[in-house]
Structure formats: structure tokens, C-alpha cells
Amino acid sequence: MNAARPPALLPAGSADSKLVLPVVLGATFVQLLSVTIAQVAAPAIQRGLDAGPGEVQLVLAGYTLTYACLLITAARLGDRYGYRRLFAIGTAVFALASAACAFAPTPAALIAARLVQGAGSGLVAPQVLSIIQTAVPTGRRAHALGLYGATMGVASLAGPLLGGLLLGADLLGLGWRTVFLATVPVALAALAGARALPRSRPDRRLRIDAVGAILATTGFGMLILPLALGPNAGWPPWTLVSLGSSAFVLACFAAAQRRGEAPLIHPAALRSRTARTGILLVFVFNAGVPSFTFLLFLHLQQAAGYSALAAAALSTPFAAAAVVGSRCAPVLARRHGPRLLTASALVLAAVMAGLAPLLGTAPTLGAAPLLAAGGAAFGVFTASVFSLVLARTSAETTGSLSGLLPTAQQLGGSIGITLASLAYLAPAADSGGAFWHAMLYQAGVFTLTAVISLRLGRGSSAPTGA
Q1: What is the 3-class SS of 16-62, one letter each residue?
Q2: Phi-psi region of 337 (alpha: psi -120 to 50; beta: other; left: phi over 0)
Q3: Where are the domains of the chain?
Q4: Is domain 17-197 annotated with CATH 1.20.1250.20?
Q5: What is the pLDDT of residues 392-423, one digit of tens each?
Q6: ∠324-409-211 over CA atoms, to 5°?
Q7: In the predicted model, is pLDDT for residue 452 greater than 90?
Q8: What is the pTM (predicted TM-score) of this model?
Q9: Which CATH architecture is the domain 265-458 placed in?
Q10: pLDDT digits (tens, 9 = 90+) for 332-375
Q11: Of 144, 240, 256, 342, which has the fewest Cβ atoms less than 10 A away?
């Protein structure tokens, strides 16, 4: 079986190795920022382009759609053609598409640009993990993975805050367009810094499973699109047909991976209990966090009457504490291992249950300590989960996990937002009751995360550099 192996590294030439992490983490930041920053600008986009509700939903969903659908295939392409090359191509696509989003004259043009923007992110994301795993020395790898997780967490939380600031400032009268322009300089800097990344010797013997790539892209697309559009559209028949069909297509993909001669996913990643547990853990955790921030801003603006900027300010303790938690995570992870994930998930579950009465229809300052505790736990979890999972799996699974873990992250986020929205919109006496329903969902998700993390702790441990 022609399984993927990490390409051998070549000298980086005159590149400065100290720039490797800033380059890849900068690209990661703007990719995750682009998921949430557009949510704040949705009403302004609708007014500015005279777009319908369905078109605005496609603007938001289109990015995640192509982003998530390409991750597994892009990981294999990185093994085949080199991580640095795919990183540079994807970053260039992302930067151009971001500029196209900013200057889109019509809703259709903006939707098309968002689809391309998501595709660029989908090409880049797996290469970041692969570069960290193959280019960073063993002794620094856990720290680098911690920074990677922290960057993802902070980026997702910074989106609403930065979006609110940009919309409030209305720089040069550009309105919502600055939300997309803001990512262009960082993307261009990452593209320029790609020369600092170590070159790898592509394995020309690797083949790309075209059938598997088509099945994966189609199956994930048929899953994500109805989840994104269904709730606001009233779940028309096509959404239910698409969801049912996605299960069949993804089952065909899984069967093809087990039987194919050149699978997109390394067989070891499918056999490893630790790898499977890690993928499930990332999936379930992300069914909670993006949906929490989404519903928090929705509730504060629609039920409590806050502006986008005021809502962002109220959530600042969560984001600020997340930064602190992520900085502490590497030391805590070395000391406590997977037990740290269990503890932080349980703290998040308790915080969700405690926030409901404090963030009903009239948010109070009493919510700040709980938001800070939740943010710290969130920062600890995101900054340690990838390093703890990858440290317990073999090197031959690196390429596959570089695609599977971000895919689990994106799918978990999409499914979680749908489920949490259903909980929020469930029959309730008032908006405070609706928020209580949503927080019960969140608490349940994080409790389940804690249970799954116990399974990771019982798994066999591999050397960090494995």
C-alpha cells in the first residue's frame, strides 16, 4: 500500500529558522479569524449590497464549506508536492480572494470570493501542522504546538471584537469592506515569509487518490451546506436529502480508504486508538466553543440590545483569559498530561451552567469572573490538545492527522452551531429561557469532552518526537 510518509526536509537556504513559527502562525490566525469576523459584519453586508438573507448565509457558509472540504486532500497534496509549496499557493489564493471579497460589487461576487478564500485556507491549514511536526526540533515541538492551538483559539475569539471595532471606526467610509481588507496585510506577510520555511523533498512515488478526494469533498460539502443554511431556511426538503446522502457518500469514502492502494488517509491513522480518540475529542470540543461565542453575540445583540462593539467589550474577559490560559498550557500539559484536558473541559461545563442566570435578558458585571474562568479553560484546552494528541501518535500518521484534526475542528464547529441554535430557538417562555437551553447544550458538550479525554489518557504514549 502506497501510504504517505513525511517528505524529507532540505536546508532552508538563507531563510531564518526563527521566522518559521511567526510565518505559519500568522497564516493560521487570519484563516481562523475569517471564520468569525464576517459574522459581525453580516447585517452591514446585507444593507450595503442589498443582499437577501439566503445570500448573506452563503457568504458566511461558503468560506467554511470549501475550507473544510479540502483539508484531507490538501494534507496528501502536501506530502506529494511539498509543504512549503502548498503553503505558498494556498496563502496567495487566500490573499487574492480576501481582496476580492473587500471590493465585491454584488452578493454573487462576494459569495464566489468567499468560496475561493476558503479554498486557500483549506490548502494551507494541513501544511502548518506538518511543517511544525517535521521542521521544529523535538524539544521545542510541544511548545510550538501549544502556540498553534493558542493562535487558533485567540483568532476565533478575536474575530467578533476586531469586526466590531472596524465597523465602528468605518475607516475611509469603507464600512464592512474593511473586515475583509484587514486580513490581506497579514496574509501577504505570511506569503513573503514563506521563503523562511524549510523546503521538503516531495515524494514523487505518492499517488493522489482521485476517487477518495472526490468522495471526501462531496460528502463533506453535502454535510456542511445544509447545516449552514437549513436553520434559517426552515429545513427545506433538499437540506434533509443532502444530510442523508452525505452519510452514504462519507461511508463510501471510508470504505475506499480501507481498500484503496493509495489512500488519502494513512492506514496507521485509522488503526490507532489514540488518533481516533484525538479526532473525536477535537470534534466534540469544537461542537461547543464556536457555537458558544456565536450564541453569546447573538443573544447580547438581539435579546439584550447591545451593539456589536458593546457585545464584544462584554466578552473581553473570556478572550483575555484565553490568552493567559494558553500561555500557561505548555507547562501544565507537561506536568498533568491528558488530565489537563479533562479538568479544563469540566471547568467549561461548569461555566456554561453558571452563565445562564447571569446572561439572561440583562447581562451583569457578575458574569465577568465566570467568563474569565471559561476563557482560561478554553485557552488551556486549545493550546494543549494538539500537542497531547500528536505526541501520542506515530510520525507516519503526521500527514493524515494534519488534515483530519482541522477537519474535525471545522465539522464540529458547523454541527455545533446548528445544534446550539436549535437549543436556543427551542420553545421557551422568554429570551432568558432560550439562553438557558443553549447553555445546557454547551454544558453537555463539554462534559462529553471531559469523558472522551479520559480515553486519551488511557491510550498508549509515544515519544514527543514520534
Answers
A1: CHHHHHHHHHHHHHHHHHHHHHHHHHHHHHHHHHCCCHHHHHHHHHH
A2: left
A3: 17-197, 265-458
A4: yes
A5: 777 677 777 878 888 888 888 888 888 888 88
A6: 155
A7: yes
A8: 0.82
A9: Up-down Bundle (1.20)
A10: 888 888 899 999 999 999 999 888 776 655 556 677 888 899 98
A11: 240
